[in-house]
Amino acid sequence: MESKILIVEDSIEDIEYLQNILQSENYQLINAKNGTTALALLDKEIPDLVILDILLPDIDGYEICRRIRKDERFFSLPVLFHTKVSTIDEKLIGLEMGASDFLTKGSDVRELLVRIRNLLSKKKIIDEKIKFSVLDSLTSTYNRLYFQHRLDDEFQRSKRYENIFSCVIIDVDNFKKVNNTFGYITGDSVLKNLADTMRQNIRTADILCRYGGDEFAALLPETDLRSAYLVAEKMRQFIMSYDLGKNDSSVSLTVSSGVSCFNKDIKSTDVLMDQANHALCLAKEKGCNQTRVYE
Questions:
Q1: Are 75 and 161 in a shared domain?
Q2: Which residues sit opposite 258 in a β-bridge?
Q3: Are 103 and 115 in contact (CB under 8 A)?
Q4: CA dist., res. 235 & res. 211, Å (int)
């Protein structure tokens, strides 16, 4: 797969210079002529590398780099400053802001390409390590430990800034029957397909994890109870109508979900998840294949 590089540069001449070099190396390029556009692009899609000028018309490169380093989503994202700024003090500021490397404009093309290849190679290694530490090995959703970490962060952020967020616990109805009927290999395949299906029905900002054997949980930032219910219902209805067996045996499933929403009176994340679980239990008691909210 081609590596994707975001070039943040306001000079048309410098953009064309980088494009001519990097396109010949088969890199996929995205351009932003100012900091505001760059941050908006980063919010939509995470590239493999950012090549960043310091002197920009709105937000300078230092501030963009600082914001990138502050955001957990960009933990492994390398930032290469490519700029006319060349004093040691200015380079040090860039490195203190979290730059991965620094190259002065006009440097040898070979040096630029070697630095880019090195940064991309390091990112690949880091991404592999992150993958094994935070992802569930079967479904490639986040694992429960990482989910708890993000839940704690969202809880503290929402308390501080009076924001809102919701949690959903999703449990497969009668999943034991799938394993007993088709075997554990098909059962594992069904869980993978189920996770893929749920990912398609939530936003990139939402956190989906495998919470237990056949149980998943979703953290939905900036989402009230009603909106979270609609998200859970959309997933439930899609799953109910979808053949999760795919190339294996034909397998249809239903899920039950419980939804809870943060408010200032909730004292801990444990309470919030207990509320979601209470709503889930109610959905099970009322016959499964439904979504209930904690009120």
A1: no
A2: 169, 292
A3: yes
A4: 17
